[in-house]
Each structure stands twice: as structure tokens, then as C-alpha cells.
Specification:
Layout: H1 17-26, H2 32-43, H3 49-54, E1 61-62, E2 67-68, H4 74-84, H5 94-100, H6 109-119
Antiparallel strand pairs: 1-2
């Protein structure tokens, strides 16, 4: 079982999971805890190339250019998540929403998010 419980630690690359969560709350992100868990999972706790070099916390993909988006800051990545992903959410179980929209190809993705989220409480 995957256990990643680092929600209060500070990343060497400028943001902590607490800062990400607080920013998500400030921009009215629904289910900010789950979305923060997505950032942790997608970036290997803010250590991935996509995070360090592209400020892309969510693995957001630009279909027209066939490449990952690059953002000026990690906050811009959070803003883009709301515009590109969360606007589709109409209520209900957020894990089901992510699964049904095909957010990730990993069939265990939402289970991994649940583990990370449960460690943050």
C-alpha cells in the first residue's frame, strides 16, 4: 500500500503542501484536500521535473501542442486546474468525478489519493 504523508513538509522547490492547500482554498477550489493530494501524487511531493521546471503541479497536458503546460508559478498551475478540470465538477463524490472523467490512466489513482488524503487529517 502506498503511504505518502508529508502534508506539512516544505519542498526544496518553493512550495509546501500546506501552502498549496491554502492557495486552493483562497481561490475557492472545491475539495482542496483532495486536489492537494493530487499535487503531491502528480509531482512526487513537489520533486518532479514537471513541478521544478514547469511549475505544473497536476500534470496538465496541452493537447494542441502535445506537451505538458509550463506555468510561470505553481499558483498559475492551480488556477489552470480550476479552469481546465474543476469547472466540469457538478457535485457529488470528487473521487468518482476524477475517475469518470478519466483524469489519470492509473486504475489505482483515486485509491492512492484516498491514502494521501487520509494522512492529512
Amino acid at each position: 500500500m502506498l503511504l505518502i504523508i508529508f502534508l506539512s513538509s516544505i519542498s526544496a522547490y518553493g512550495q509546501s503542501s500546506n501552502e498549496v492547500r491554502q492557495y486552493l482554498v483562497s481561490i475557492s477550489c472545491k475539495h482542496a484536500d483532495i486536489v492537494t493530494s493530487q499535487a503531491i501524487l502528480e509531482t512526487g511531493h513537489f520533486k518532479s521535473y514537471g513541478c521544478r521546471e514547469r511549475n505544473n503541479l497536476f500534470g496538465l497536458w496541452n493537447h494542441s501542442k502535445q506537451e505538458f503546460y509550463k506555468f510561470e508559478s505553481w499558483r498559475d498551475s492551480c488556477d489552470a486546474y480550476l479552469r481546465m478540470v474543476q469547472y466540469k465538477y457538478k457535485g457529488g463524490d470528487y473521487y468518482v468525478f476524477l475517475s469518470e472523467m478519466g483524469y489519470a490512466s492509473d486504475p489505482e489513482y483515486t485509491n492512492k489519493l484516498r491514502v494521501i488524503s487520509s494522512g492529512s487529517k
